[in-house]
Amino acid sequence: xxxxxxxxxxxxxxxxxxxxxxxxxxxxEKIAITSxxxxxxxNKITSILTKDDFQCVFLDTPGIxxxxxxxxxxxxxxxxxxxxxxxxxxxxxNPQTRYWKRISMCWKNWAM
Length: 112
Known about the structure:
Rossmann fold, alpha/beta, 3 helices, four-stranded mixed sheet
């Protein structure tokens, strides 16, 4: 038997950019609910992709946004906390938007 690789990947991005859709596509199953409404994912959702020579654990997170209430604060904190739990952070975004200030702030806080 050859080498076997494994790792954790966090899907991070703004609300409603397709993080859950991407995870469902990568896994090949409908694990996470998808909707055209922002903030459908309210908690971190874990899925596992297993192949012959690797295993990848994906963490689908709520969208990073400027919270207006306690639930929003919880969801952003949930997404930010995954920076410390994973081997790779995959930033997923709509390239037609320019709202990266919040994500770059999260990245700077995590890197410190």
